[in-house]
Design a protein that fits this description.
about 120 residues, alpha+beta, 6 helices, about 10% strand
Length: about 120
């Protein structure tokens, strides 16, 4: 998360150094990405790739996809393995579902939202 915050706020090299630290601690044996001169978009893609691998099976991918805007745009040129074991390297994933539910009325009765808080009703309705 710290690497993501650094990359998204312009401290790309510092964020990439943290990615390298995670890879080293896990014994991944991958080449370092810090000091390679990655541009903003490339650094973000490297971060996304690292989170998809490092955080697999931790239940975080939905929240990452929502935070990065992938739920709205979908994913293209994605590698997918279907249930027969066939690998498709040019798959397109379209999510097409509501990314969050409205806050229940009983919750709002007890916990009124403060000025400037997140919407309590999904704006996509």
């Amino acid at each position: 998360m710290k690497a993501e915050a650094l990359i998204y706020t312009g401290s790309i090299e510092d964020g990439l150094k943290l990615i390298d630290g995670v890879r080293k601690s896990q014994g991944a044996g991958l080449d370092p990405v810090a000091g390679t001169g990655l541009a903003d978009a490339d650094a973000k893609e490297e971060l996304r790739r690292e989170r998809r691998i490092t955080c697999a099976w931790r239940g975080l991918s939905f929240y990452d996809a929502r935070r990065w805007g992938v739920l709205e745009t979908g994913r293209s040129n994605t590698i997918v393995v279907d249930r027969t074991g066939t690998v498709n390297t040019k798959a397109t994933i379209s999510y097409n579902y509501l990314d969050y539910w409205d806050v229940p009325d009983n919750e709002l009765a007890y916990n009124k939202p403060a000025a400037g808080s997140a919407p309590v009703v999904n704006p996509k309705k």
